[in-house]
Every structure is written in structure tokens, then in C-alpha cells.
Amino acid sequence: MPLQRTIGPEALNQMRERGGEWAAYENHDLGHAELGHLQFLKFGPGCTFEKVPERMPDTQTHINWRYVLVGTVNLETGEIEECR
């Protein structure tokens, strides 16, 4: 049975308002307090990333090596569709 990942309603509403395509990243650091936490990145034409990176890119304020790509967000159903 596939792992069930839940997107919070506020995050999902923000992604729906902004539209486009969204990648879902999950914290896979077994020693980290936020293991399993999700982050999202908009990608596609006109975005900073046209193709989905395998790991969540670093920002000026966060080093994101622990966040690994787990799928893309289906904005209609609110589910994460796993990468194959």
C-alpha cells in the first residue's frame, strides 16, 4: 500500500490560487525533528525551475538537502502523485 501524504488545506489553497505545476518534497533525514515534513516548489515554463529538481533547492535562508522529491501535486484532487 502506498504511503499517504497529506497536504495541509492552506498550502493546497495557495497552490490552487497560484496555479501551474507543483513538486512535492519530503524531509527524509531520519535524525531530524521534522522527518516527513512536506515542502512544495512551483516549476515549469516561466518559473525559476522549468524541470523538477531531485532535491529541494537551497534558498538564502534554508539549506534543503534533506528534502527529496516524492511526486507532483494534483491540484484537483489535492493528492501527491508519486514519481515513477
Account of the protein in words:
The chain is an alpha+beta fold. It has one domain. 12% of the residues lie in helices and 30% in strands. The longest helix is centred in the first third of the chain and has 10 residues, at 9-18. The chain is globular, with a radius of gyration of 13 Å.
Spatial strand arrangement across the major sheet:
2-1-3-4
Rg, Cα atoms, Å: 13 Å
- How much of the polypeptide forms β-strand, as a percent range? 25-35%
Could you spell the SSE succession in H and E letters? HEEEE
What does the overall shape look like? Answer: globular
Largest sheet: 4 strands, antiparallel
Give a summary of the structure in a few sentences.
The chain has one helix at 9-18, and strands at residues 21-27, 38-43, 67-74, 79-82. By secondary structure, the chain is an alpha+beta fold. It has one domain (9-82).
What are the SSEs and their pairings?
Layout: H1 9-18, E1 21-27, E2 38-43, E3 67-74, E4 79-82
Antiparallel strand pairs: 1-2, 1-3, 3-4
What keyword list fits this structure?
84 residues, alpha+beta, four-stranded antiparallel sheet, 1 helix, 12% helix
